[in-house]
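Known limitations

Structure tokens in this collection are predictions and should be treated as such. Users comparing against experimental data should check residue numbering before alignment. To illustrate the layout, the record for Dihydrolipoyl dehydrogenase is reproduced below. The input appears on top and the generated tokens appear beneath it.
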Amino acid sequence: MSDTFDVIIIGGGPGGYNCAIRCGQLGLKTAIIEMRDTLGGTCLNVGCIPSKALLHASEYYATAQNEFQGMGIGVSGLKLDLDQMMAQKDEAVKGLTQGVAFLMKKNKVTHFNGKGKIVGKGEVEVAMSDGSTKKLGGKNIVIATGSEPASLPGIEIDEERVVSNTGALSLKSVPKKLVLIGAGVIGLEMGSVWSRLGSEVTVVEFLDHIMPGADAEISKQSKKIFEKQGLQFKMGTKVTGIEKLKSKLKVSVEPAKGGDAETLDADVVIVAIGRKPYTDGLGLETVGIGTDKRGVIDTVDHFRTTVEGIWAIGDCVKGPMLAHKAEEDGAAVAELIAGKAGHVDYNLVPSVVYTKPEIAWVGKNEQQLKDADIKYKVGKFPFMANSRARTNHQTDGFVKVLADATTDEVLGVHMLGVGVGELIGEVCVAMAFRASSEDIARTCHAHPTLSEAVRQAAMGVEGWTMQA
Ligand code: FAD
Ligand code: NAI
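Generated tokens:
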């Protein structure tokens, strides 16, 4: 045995690295194993961060093209330098992954670059990137191996013309015709990026609505906005195959409920139909840890697997596949290992889609409340009536507050609008303190800000919205 630790973490994404930092802070001797050359996982390397860097830059480009003139700003000679746009994205990724490596050192976490495999209770073998093998012993093992893109049977991802979310972040040129399979978060975010940069985008979605999980009203209204921006949707449709010709791709689609097939031409296809836990070669079977049909690791309670001393967190266990959820899991499991009371409230994990306008929500939506037979009141406020949104000429969308009909406790908040990804934070705090809609309505918000729309929607629950 070359070394022993209190905690061995397999996977250096938001779940793993936040767990490592908290373990270090709590005085636990900690190791983190990551098979990528850089730490940060999917999120920093091929997920949240590069996608947001491209969303930000492409939004500037589209704004300069479509909105500057109306604000009295003349632009001439505007042109896209895709290589530079990709370089600034890579720069953001590099800075942040290096930052995580620094945090490991600062918190005295030992970093092993290689693939970890559980070979027994408390035993992990690392196939190091330099070709050597290391055996580590640990009182606790935390599995934080994350997820990988789900695939479609019969459709081969080559990351050049038929790409997963990874290839979608690094296309070498702007495809003339782009087909996206899946109108979920990646479909809408990456569809927005490439549409802004000039692609003709068609999104093929199996269901009859976009963004499963979002409030139905928001899903409906946002679809209309994305359509106005140029995204085309083929709803209730499935892709049955892709023929790769030299000059183009021929995408066969047919109605999900059956009907006539048709063919769409494309230069690039992005497959974004969800993600699945990644546990390849991890050795779960060696210690008898099971997974469900989708590969989600079985946990008994509070991140404990069926084997004592082995824990699992983040995308590879149940719950939303989100970086901040993985972070919460990571910190909580560290505290549990240290004998403290780690806890995550999964009802308060916000969702944000970083399109323009953004979509953000936390808590229950109307359908979920109806299904649970909970009586609720609704307060709504449109950004059209918000002074800051008007000055910014960004008036699409609204805020909707759902509060318990008897107690007035806020049960869910759903927003569509520019900047709502930031506004959701105040709602999470309010809900963590079990605020009533009246608590938010009676809290002074600065004027003129978009956050006043949250307050006004809360006021709307009691019918005393002030702004017209
Ligand atoms: P991961 O980040 O997947 O990290 C797991 C790590 O474990 C990986 O680096 C992997 O290489 C490593 N690993 C796996 N097996 C082994 C092994 N045996 N040995 C060693 N290392 C191993 N979430 C958000 O909240 N906001 C967003 O804006 C957002 N945008 C996204 C955009 C895209 C395009 C994608 C794909 C995802 C996005 N996500 C976003 C989701 C987010 O990236 C994940 O929820 C998050 O990364 C999960 O963290 P994790 O630590 O559980 O797993
Ligand atoms: P998703 O689950 O958000 O959406 C997948 C979509 O594909 C769904 O609408 C589904 O109905 C559809 N679909 C499934 N099979 C299909 C088929 N055969 N044909 C057509 N449509 C089909 O998954 P997505 O967009 O791939 O993202 C994966 C995960 O990554 C998300 O669930 C999310 O957790 C995370 N993510 C989060 C982001 C954020 O927080 N802003 C951004 C990007 C990803």
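For this record: Residues 82-106 form the longest helix (25 residues). The two ends are 71 Å apart (CA to CA). Please report discrepancies through the issue tracker.
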